[in-house]
Design brief:
9 helices
């Protein structure tokens, strides 16, 4: 006995017919909450698994368009600048064993067969600011939530690896693309900026060394002090946009 109505199953079949066979998209969206680097994950209905947002590409749409549609359908995030971080197409990239349990949820064999095939997936990543907190998912997903990157080791399929690969790209582009302005609020302290670097690098950074090297780049403008109690309130900075962008065109190695 299926747990899904015939109407729902018909809708799923209609959607699958519109898609390019064996080609999918997955999106890794990074957010820094002030302490941790986070990504959104989704839980399909009637399934005790979690994965990163992803789906199939319609025959009549481009891959970039598909990535934006899929992301919005599953998280309601929109207007993000998505960049590809890799294409994953190992000959063994099929998950029939993992998906086998779907039959007990009431999915017919034809749907299980479709999603059990080997899929090549295109990975996209993006960054949202700290204010991007509310997430809402579509009808085929039970829940969507933010989790810390170090809590993604047990994601379904190979999605833990996709997060790891996106993080490698993020680290590689930290000094070549204007990522700081996407992660940080308009004003911040140096310790707050240091926490971002530590969250991305996944390790502690020496406080004195970080402060010295960041100030040496001259990409920060002092705007005042934080309104906190204590004898030495922290200094608040903002990015000097021109100098920051100029620094990205140079071979600037911070060496943290």
């Amino acid at each position: 006995m299926s747990q899904f109505s015939e109407e729902t199953l018909t809708l799923i079949r209609q959607e699958l017919k519109k898609c390019i066979p064996q080609l999918s998209i997955n999106c890794v969206i990074f957010r820094f909450d002030g302490e941790h680097l986070q990504v959104p994950i989704v839980q399909p209905v009637q399934a005790d698994i979690w994965n990163i947002p992803g789906g199939y590409i319609y025959q009549d749409e481009g891959i970039n368009e598909a990535a934006k549609r899929i992301l919005f359908e599953q998280t309601e995030m929109e207007n993000l600048l998505l960049s590809q971080f890799g294409t994953f197409g190992s000959a063994k990239r099929e998950f029939s064993e993992e998906i086998k349990g779907y039959s007990s949820l009431g999915f017919p064999e034809d749907i299980i067969k479709y999603v059990s095939q080997r899929f090549v997936t295109i990975g996209y990543y993006s960054i949202v600011g700290q204010k991007q907190k509310k997430l809402k998912t579509g009808p085929f997903f039970r829940e969507v939530k933010w989790v810390n990157v170090n809590e993604t080791k047990s994601l379904a399929l190979d999605h833990s690896n996709l997060v790891s690969e996106a993080l490698l790209m993020l680290k590689a582009e930290l000094q070549s693309k204007p990522l700081l302005s996407s992660f940080m609020p308009q004003t911040f302290t140096i310790p707050e900026l240091q926490k971002l670097y530590e969250a991305i690098l996944g390790r502690p950074v020496d406080r004195g060394n970080f402060r010295q090297r960041i100030l040496k780049t001259k990409i920060l403008i002092k705007v005042g002090t934080a309104t906190k109690t204590g004898s030495r309130p922290p200094i608040v900075y903002k990015l000097d946009t021109k100098k920051y962008l100029d620094s990205l065109t140079q071979d600037m190695k911070l060496g943290f």
